[in-house]
Structure formats: structure tokens, C-alpha cells
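Extended Data, record DUF3159 domain-containing protein
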Amino acid sequence: MSRPESRTETGAAGPAEPAGQARPEIADQTPDEAATRAAFFEAFGGVRGMVETTVPGLVFVLSYTINRSINISAVAALSISAVLAVSRLVQRDTLKHALSGVFGVAFGAVFAMISGDAKNFYLPGMLYTLGLGVAYVGTALAGVPLLGLILGPVFRENLSWRTRNPGRKRAYVRASFIWGGILLAKSAITFPIYFWGDATQLGWLRVALGIPPFLVAVYFTWIILVKAPAPIDVIAEWEEKERRESAAAD
């Protein structure tokens, strides 16, 4: 699979180059395909992020299936989520995904214990999934796709795709519709079980619908972006501009 290679041409008129002076080329700062894929996947949490978002729910449904105790199951899920976050802290790794998991599990645990309904452990996550699906679709319809806002910094293009790279913007719009469609489909499956099923059915369904749809969305997003115009490396442009200004001042 070919990788998206960053480009640095501005696509807009700039100051005229002095006659007879060759324009310096910007060094190729594009990461190799493996690094690009790693950064792309890590933007969505990576393998570890998937584990951190899946294991607490799995622990809850396993515990509740065995002992039918909301409190014990909620505390067990929250404890494992906290252990995963502490593990990140000890390793001095990013806490973004771990902390989001802790807060999500904490909300669900408190809500389930207060309401006395084990199904409510999953409600905050279900509402988040629904809201995120609506956000993907809504921003895509508005022409400011959420996926572009997420991945722009990953590919060093920031928001250049909005005005300088229309083909890439279209790719982000299509991919955002895919993410939104998958998340809304998950909501369409899980909410009926929340209202008419029991807690164990909902729990196992949530576990089953955790990683596979995520991987499908990531795969199709990568396929779409590989076929899209290359990202404009605005970071390299800024660095080159600073280099020129520094050279001119010397």
C-alpha cells in the first residue's frame, strides 16, 4: 500500500523569487509508511487504547454475570480502569485515552449504583457513541469534517486541507461519514437492548461491538486517505520560512 507523501507547495501566490536565484528545496520530512501508519492508528488510541476502553466493560459484565451485584461489578470495573491509568503514569506515557476511560467508567459506575440498574453502567458510553456519531455526520455535512480536525496534526497539515487541498478535504468528509455511520449503527443496535433487554445481554453486546467496528472504520479511513491527494506539510513550510529568514538576517 502506498503511503501519503507530504507536500510543501503552497498552492497560492507568494513573494516573487529574485531573478536567477534557485528556490531552495524543502527537505523531505515525511515519515516512512510504518511511522505514518503508527501515528494514524495512535490518533485513535492504538491497541492499548482499545484494551483500556474494552477491558473495564468486560470486567463489569463478567462480574455481574457471576455475582449479580451492581456495586461489586462497578467497583471492579473502576479499579481495573484506574490500574490501567496508573500503568500509563508509571511508564510516563500519554494519559489521554486512559483518563478518558477512567472518567467514562466512573460515570457509568456511579450512575449504575445510584439508579440500581446495571444497564446504566453502559449508558454514558452509549450516549457518547451516539453524540460522536452525530458529530461526525454533522461536521461532514457542514464541510468541516471532524476527522480532518483530528488527523490534521497527525499528518503535519493542520487545517491546510480546508482551503488549500480540496481533494483531501473531500476524503476527510467521506471518511467522517463512514465513522458517523458506523457509530450511529452501533447506537441503533445497542439502544433497543438497553430499553428492552437485560444488563448481561447489553454488556456482552457492547463488548462484541467494541473493537471490530473500530477496526473497520480505521481500515476504510486509511484506504480513503491513501487515494486522496497528499497532505501539505505546513510544519515543513514554517520551518523552511524560519530558515530563510534566519539565513537572510545573517
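Summary. The first helix runs from residue 33 to 42.
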